[in-house]
Amino acid sequence: IISFSNKNFTLIKEVKKIIKRLFDRDSSIRVHSGAKRDNYILTFKSVPISCLFRELGLNFGKKSRIMVLHNDIFSLSQKSVGNFISGCLDGDGCVNISRQGAYFRIHSYSKEFIEQIYHYFVRLGIHPSIISNKRENGVLHYIQITSYRDRKKLFHVFKDNGKAQKLQNNIKDEKRTSFVPVGDVIHLHKISN
Predict the structure, then answer these.
(1) Which residue has the higher pLDDT, 87 or 114?
(2) Are 158 and 86 contacting, i.e. CB atoms less than 8 angstroms apart?
């Protein structure tokens, strides 16, 4: 059984349409029966599709600890990589809103997954931070973008819906005198040596 869970019913319905269109499979949607009653779960059965998802890096079991992405994703167009990251934000991310504005995080217990997402952002000219936080059940890793300049770049990459839209609606103008991404400084230093 393959299942997808999300609070966004519109997103779940869209996944249902995609599964029908791409794989000609019917799926069912139900409301989570436990404490997470605000989550919707889409399920369907297919051994071949399970194998395909595994090949793409979507593993079974405790996927949050062992998830890695297929290497071919990095070679996709910038638009496709941006859509992929937008999907990660909708599925595993959160938008935080404060007096200073809004920023987002994508989090996972898989350090390799977070490092892969980091490199996708750098490929798009966006410089996130990786933060690790020790928890009772392991180390949780985050990709976070707090730089105003980089958050503005996101809107040329992300679709105008879901959590990306929430981020865009809550970003506030910030004035900075200068900005040099640390990744660019390190890259220039390596080139000069």
Answers:
(1) 114
(2) yes
